[in-house]
Amino acid sequence: MFDRIDHVGIAVEDLDAALALFEGTFGMPVAHRETVEEQGVEAALLDVGENHVELLRPLGPDTPVGRFLAKRGPGIHHVAYQVTDVEAALARCREAGLRLIDEAPRTGIRNSRVAFLHPSSSGAVLTEIVQPAHH
Amino acid sequence: MFDRIDHVGIAVEDLDAALALFEGTFGMPVAHRETVEEQGVEAALLDVGENHVELLRPLGPDTPVGRFLAKRGPGIHHVAYQVTDVEAALARCREAGLRLIDEAPRTGIRNSRVAFLHPSSSGAVLTEIVQPAHH
């Protein structure tokens, strides 16, 4: 069902400090930056081969990533798997009885189509499935 | 420095239940299973394209993954990046002032050579660098 790991999402308090580590020290090129007001995040997507690291800075405390930071501190927020057909993947997860956060795909960064699965039935991991725009 | 995401390590309490999800529902083939007594874990490595998910069940509560489960519950434990030269990558991390858990590479599963970086200077993420055996 999954073609590869699309990205690991990491919640950060200071995006510039995180970029100094991931871009500067680890040498991951920044592929994309975007502020998504409706999600309450500023996101930076960095390349690691065909995979990515997605750094997520909350725009305020009353946002999903802001609440995550308050509760758990900075660190890994979610894992995303790449698919060629997000509807089919989401249907398979629904049929398997997994609890969905998104009942239908929505637009993610870089015009991808994404849907989140609830950690409660996904191994305690907030799980995202991503169909990139170029597919 | 990093060629790709090698794997995401996920701490689980029940390996069979986790395999039912990751192998059964998500369709990730099991590539390898290994009990590493010195690390105190039973590990299952599943393929996701060229990447992997590593499921980690502690052999007891007084192990690194056992303590992680007691403190944080099940979920993402670490992220591993693949390199072609683990010594060179570790030297670069040391020169950048990152705090290392392993001062020298050691043997990981499937005869890989691995080294861990401490989360305190790695974006609050337990970070592993992996040189696969076939490189």
Structural description of this entry:
The structure is a homodimer of 135-residue chains. Chain A is of the alpha+beta class. Chain A contains 3 helices and 8 strands. An 8-stranded mixed beta sheet of chain A has the order 2-3-4-1-5-8-7-6. Chain A is globular, with a radius of gyration of 14 Å.
What share of the residues of chain A lie within helices? 10-25%
Oligomer: homodimer
> Widest sheet of chain A: strand order?
2-3-4-1-5-8-7-6
Termini separation of chain A (Å)? Answer: 15 Å
CATH architecture of the largest domain in chain A: Roll
- The poorly predicted ranges of chain A are none
Helix/strand order of chain A, N-terminal first: EHEEEHEHEEE
Which chains make the largest contact? A-B, 38 and 38 residues
Indicate the CATH class of the largest domain in chain A. Alpha Beta
The overall strand count of chain A is: 8
Mean pLDDT of chain A: 96
Separate helix tally of chain A: 3
CATH superfamily label of the largest domain in chain A: 2,3-Dihydroxybiphenyl 1,2-Dioxygenase, domain 1
Number of domains of chain A: 2
Question: How much strand content do the residues of chain A show?
Answer: 35-45%
Main traits of this protein?
8 strands; alpha+beta; 135 residues; globular; 2,3-Dihydroxybiphenyl 1,2-Dioxygenase, domain 1; homodimer; eight-stranded mixed beta sheet
What's the structural blueprint in terms of helices and strands?
Two copies of one chain form a homodimer.
Chain A: E1 4-11, H1 15-25, E2 30-36, E3 41-48, E4 51-58, H2 64-72, E5 75-82, H3 86-95, E6 106-107, E7 113-117, E8 127-131
Parallel strand pairs in A: 1-4, 5-8
Antiparallel strand pairs in A: 1-5, 2-3, 3-4, 6-7, 7-8
